[in-house]
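We treat protein structure as text, and this decision shapes the records that our systems exchange. This encoding replaces a full spatial description with a residue-level series of whole-number codes. Below, we set out a record of this kind in full and without editing:
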Amino acid sequence: MMYEFGLIGKTTEEIELYRVTDVGVKQHPLERITGIGDIYIASGDASAPTKYLHNVSEPERVKDLIREAARQERERRRVMVREDF
């Protein structure tokens, strides 16, 4: 996953999918009504242990897509996270 942010300058950060350990959604009542929310992604990456994607449309669906992509990448690389033990 790659994040780019900044208005004048640009910063790019990446989290390898196989390092994603947890994904969740945070929504306020108004966000639930409008169908948007924030997604947090926790990873084993020391430089970016938790990242947030703000104002995502259909956040539950996107969360599930990220979780499944991370699972598939761990499977492809034959990597296990601590909770798999």
Summary: The first strand starts at residue 2 and ends at 5. The chain has a mean pLDDT of 87.
